[in-house]
């Protein structure tokens, strides 16, 4: 141990001793003074003074003593403690004598966190600087993406998706407007498509589904009805034409009147 | 021969008609109807002939030969068929096939059906004197000789159902050969 250190410690010890002696003296003096006063009051009480007066004086004296003691303690305790702290290594003392683990176990971390103003802390943090220090490439290189994908339950995620709601948000008109239908059609191999089609089978199915005889009958009926109507109309016009001609020949006054109103 | 379209008779007007002949069928329409009825009679005659042939083949299969009816026989048979055809049509619905096709109807002087007697006489008159139909072209009331003699009229009836019977100026449902 160095001599300087030993000398410093000796001076500190001497200073502490002197301070303690001064403190004891300072503390003892009011006590002694009070004791003398008490003895004097006891003698006077014993010599016949009234008890009430004596008790009042004792109370006043006790209050003065208590005030003096408090003043003395306040004036000297600080100096005493500082002197002791100069001498004693508190950190080492705490390490040796305090069970820090027990203290830590006694701390209610949740309560501490609940009291902490995280927003304020985050507000003070310079996230840009933090992010600038992070080597994202290195972080990403360490990530096992395949393992993450393997853990994801795609079916469960898809089952949660409301496809109807998603589809209702899609503006198909806008998408269709962007499509280049000509380009799409140009890529289609129509010959291959037609080659795959069973045209004969499709035609058979269509014919089976359609009541062709009924269509033919209906068409024939409609055509016949139209023909008959046309024939009747032409016949009436011809009748009127003949009637007008005959009426002109015979100079009839109503030769131009039609047969039907 | 047939004159399936009727001819007019008494000069009285039926319901919906005027004395000037408005609503009455003219010579062209009635001629076309008569032509159609003539075709019907020809087909009926051919049918009768085939039926007789079939019957003959059934009864005399070994001695079967195609019958060769003479012209008078053919004419008589065709005349009988035409008489029956026209009589039944005019007495029941007032419409032959040709009349239904052209949209005309034969009625009595009061707008009702002709009746069997007048229908028969009118059929015979049309068969033996078909030229009388042409008088409706000259008549201001569009009446043929047969119409004048038997008191009948031929009117346009152009509603879609050509088989509706007209009785007393009202229409009653009833399909006839004119359909």
Account of the protein in words:
The complex is a heterodimer of chains A (261) and B (179). Chain A has 261 residues and is an all-alpha fold. Chain A has 16 helices and no strands. The mean pLDDT of chain A is 81. By secondary structure, chain B is mainly alpha-helical. Helix content of chain B is 47%, strand content 9%. Chain B has helices spanning 27-59, 71-92, 97-102, 116-128, 135-138, 145-150; strands at residues 104-108, 152-156, 165-167, 170-172. In chain B, the strands form 2 sheets. Chain B has a two-stranded antiparallel ribbon with strand order 1-2. In chain B, strands 3-4 form a two-stranded antiparallel ribbon. The longest helix of chain B is centred in the N-terminal third of the chain and has 33 residues, at 27-59. Chain B starts with 26 loop residues before the first helix and ends in a 7-residue tail after the last strand.
Descriptive terms for the model:
heterodimer; A: 261 residues; mainly alpha; B: 179 residues; two-stranded antiparallel sheet; 6 helices; 9% strand; disordered N terminus
Quick synopsis:
The complex is a heterodimer of chains A (about 260) and B (about 180). By secondary structure, chain A is mainly α.
Share of helical residues of chain B? 40-55%
Distance between the termini of chain A: 147 Å
Largest interface: A-B, 21 and 21 residues
Strand content of chain A: under 5%
What is the oligomeric state here? Answer: heterodimer
Structural class of chain A: mainly alpha
What is the alpha-carbon Rg of chain A in Å? 61 Å
- Report, as a whole number of angstroms, the end-to-end distance of chain B: 21 Å
Main sheet of chain A, how many strands, which sense, barrel? none
The run of helices and strands of chain B is HHHEHHHEEE
Our Rg estimate of chain B from Cα atoms comes to 17 Å
Number of helices of chain A: 16
What is the spatial order of strands in the main beta sheet of chain B? Answer: 1-2
